[in-house]
Amino acid sequence: MAIDKYTNGNDHRSDVNGSFNGHKGTNDSTNGNFENSSANCGGSRDVPVAICGMGLRLPGGIRSDADLFDFLVNKGDARSIVPSDRFNIETYYDANARPGFIGTKYGYFLNEDLSKFDTSMFSMMTAEVTQLDPAQRLLLEVAREALESAGEADFRGKNIGTYVGDFTQGWEELHGIDVSYLAPYLLTGKADFVLSNRLAYEYDLTGPSLTVKTACSASGQAMYEAILSIQTGRCPSAIVAGANLMLTPRESAGMSAYRVLAPDGSCKTFDAEANGYARGESVSAMYIKRLDEAVRDGNPIRAVIRACGSNADGGGVGRSFGVPNPVTQERLIRQTYEQAGLELTSTEVVECHGTGTAVGDPLEVQGIASCFGGRGVYIGSVKPNLGHGEGASAMASIAKATLALERRTIIPNIKFNTPNPKSE
User: Fold this and answer.
1) How big is the CA angle at 105 (ends 284 and 32), to the nearest 5 degrees?
2) Which of 97, 185, 218, 396 could bridge 128 with an S-S bond, Cβ 3.0-4.6 Å?
3) Which three-class secondary structure string do you get for 167-196?
4) Which domains does the chain have, with CATH numbers?
């Protein structure tokens, strides 16, 4: 997503611009890319969208945007051994990643007691709360914080959309172990389709509601869908969120079978030592709104999104399923910048997907270099600090880019010592 710092006056484009590029990972339905860029206001597809508020729950005890900025500029790394309240990693760890085992002891986890929930703010009965996916609980918290930080108090009954990107199914898997276990509210407590609808119901938001399941691009795609709804007049504002929790060993074992997890549990993005990614938990939300209405209503304007686009990597000879396609990524970037009316040379920083895989990083860099390489740009990724939040990862990247623009700071990359020769 190429986003702008908002400035008062006729020209809303700052002299420092950033771009966010995301790659859809692998799932049963799709893989591809999304890109957002900056443009001047024009027709309906050119309506600028403001990022007004955010709520965060990220590894390293991060619970606010101030926490996130301090953590990143101080080169924090939230990596830890899998905590015992998730699962016993010693039972599932195998250094050779044999089938059914996990090839790393490490990951990035929220410092949260997932059993805690303030029921006083919501309409659910105790029997319903006991079945509630922790992701639903945390999404309710961060969505409220996003609304509050945006200065939105009178939101109930309003045409506000809810869009949630999701990847993991740990809560549903836990409740599927015993097929004879049945309880009231079990279905709505565990099913992923409830994520966006729970937000809409509890906060009485009447705009479009959509849960997106496109693997690692899910929250980025959710942002894209929300922006399209705003630009086409379906709703003037939206909550966009992502959730990723690691409650069972099954998905990590599945990732190990694909040999995509780093044995040391660390994303060494762009580095010659890159050997896989580290899984990370993440629950985050943003409140976005038409820029003109945000200005009219006095909302804080953290950053401005001017245009957006989405495509798929496609197939073809020589590529396996889920591997990035630099040709389609380059095409999408150029199409989005053309739609935005923005010159590629005006971008200074690109926040990349950048997971730290030996195959994916060089291909993503190739696509970016084809667009921005002539003049040169800074590239970065939040994943060495926070791990790969998978379905929620785009939210952390967008939050980082927003904070970098606000503070006019190029946030350092950690674990980058020797450039990957395949990316040169």
Assistant:
1) 45
2) 185
3) CCCHHHHHHHCCCCCCCCCHHHHHCCCHHH
4) 3-423 (3.40.47.10)
CA angle 144, 149, 152 (to 5 degrees): 70
- The amino acid at residue 209 is S
Q: Which of 65, 49, 33, 26 is nearest to 254 (CA)?
A: 26
Flag whether the pTM goes above 0.85. yes
Helix, coil or strand: residue 303? strand
Residue 82 per-residue DSSP state: P
Confidence of residue 21 (pLDDT cuts 50, 70, 90): low
pLDDT tens-place string over residues 185-242: 999 999 999 999 999 999 999 999 999 999 999 999 999 999 999 999 999 999 999 9
Nearest to 52, CA basis, from 409, 406, 392? 406
> H-type helices in 274-389, by residue range?
291-297, 326-340, 360-372, 383-386
